[in-house]
Amino acid sequence: MNSLGELLAMGGYGLYVWGSLAMCTAVVVVELMVIRFRRRLLALKAFDERATGETTV
Question: N or C: less crowded end of the chain, CB within 10 Å?
Fold first, then answer.
């Protein structure tokens, strides 16, 4: 590989390779955001239950 352009082009398959990498990265980022949101929601719910003394099934 002689240049950055050749690296990015990857022999004509660059669009597919970099597009796939971008999509996988986006999915991982969204998954991490969802996990953090659910964790915060569960922590708030647990805090509310502890404060009021109620439990939900």
Answer: C
